[in-house]
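Bug: token stream looks shifted between consecutive jobs. Job 1:
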Amino acid sequence: MKGVKKSIMLEIFKSLPAGGTVFNSLAVIFGSVIGLFLGKFISEKTQDTIFNCLGLFTVYVGVNMMLNMKNSIAVLLSLVLGAVTGEFLGIEEKLNTLGDKLKARIKTSNAKFTQGFVSATLLFCVGSMAIIGSIEDGLRHNPEILITKGIMDCIAGAMMAGTFGVGVMFSVVPLFLYQGVITLGASWAESVITEAMYANISGIGGLMIMGIGLNMMKITRLRLGDMLPGLVYVVFFSAMLA
């Protein structure tokens, strides 16, 4: 019965342009709404405990992804140059500014709005599942990877929204644009990206995901938004050092 339901879901979202991203976005919204509702009934101490558990699990996910890398030198160079480029471009600052503008526009008093928006955006957008899933959806009209990711994001979004509030829900905007653009450009990416590149993308994405988990647990204060250009550099260095 479960297999039949999954098959029907796949067929529905296969028929939509960027169907996997549509499902992923709806799942984040649904999870955020659940989290906003449940968050009212959970004490701040319990929310902190849940969030530390989420941070710890996020580190675990990042380690698993990181271990997929094929060329550690390519990943290291990409991470360092990506961070330098991101700082020069002010990506983290721009993400924070965008979060503040959204906060002002919807007139919320939630002090954690921007932190929730930035953390959720990075968590949902950084990683091999977002990239590979979007490419798979664009090339083969197969949204299965993004549907799986959507279910995971739904759970994470619910827990994050319970702590950070409505800012988590607004992360669906960059998520939809990011994955949608990759899906539409997938035919070009297929001719360029090799299996080793996929592995190194997973590696650098895993390191960033680990950083998100450490930031969630307040162990570090890494400017992860500035590291995002590393996802572009890793394709270049993987080709050079192949």
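Job 2, same session, no restart:
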Amino acid sequence: MSQSTSFGIMTAPQQVEYGDVLRVWREADEIPEIEHAWLFDHLMPIGGAPDGPIFEGWTLLSALAAQTRRLRLGLLVTSNRFRPPAMLAKIAATVDIVSGGRLDFGIGAGSRPSVPMARGEYDAHGLPYLDATQAVESLGEACTVIRRLWTEAEPFDFHGAHVDLVGAFCNPKPVQGSRLPILIGGRATSTLRVVAEHADLWNHPGEDLDDAVSGSALLDRYCGEIGRDPASITRSIHLPVSYEDPAITRDAIAKATGAGFRHVILGLPAPYPVGVAQWVADELISTSV
């Protein structure tokens, strides 16, 4: 794992207008210290007014990809429960092409049952809500077929416990092909086994650094069990930003990077102040490297 730290921003596309998000991403695209930018993947707000505005993640990501030139970009993280994996592979390939090869493919098992507002979006959209065991098993199969669709030159069949494909094929392929990074988000023990097998990056939601450190150690062990170098998986963490007291965020960054998390995603609360991307670079990143 590289010892250098990369910094990005996350703009949750809820309780905001499209122009607000576009403004921040365009500004960040001109600031070299900010290397990546992220949205999340929810269909109904999980914070603020439950009937407030929220944008579909992949559609918005494609629009932002077309209006930026440098930032790597992705969803933190796609819910594997929302879209069939072969369709998701096609969506991701399209966004990678639109972006000129800048996609980081973030995926996870889906919302935790402990988040009632997130749980409700499945019922509201007629989507099945798999139990935790099924969701993680399905995630592993999804990662397998998505990578195959991005790379295999001929149609193939796949018959798993949760994914069943006949004549599956993806054309055009992503610009990055087999190099398109997969970031898996999640903290459950079962999810970490999927991370060990499939991920290039692992993201922890960041609420509890002790939990993140324990998860990273467990991931090391799971990698060892399958003969994979643990250092081949970059450790990523999401940290909330405090505009009022940036010292709090700087302290969180220092602790996370000191614990080996070298891919830092700074969550920006809305509304976004004018010049917020430059503020992040000046007040948070430049003082942390």
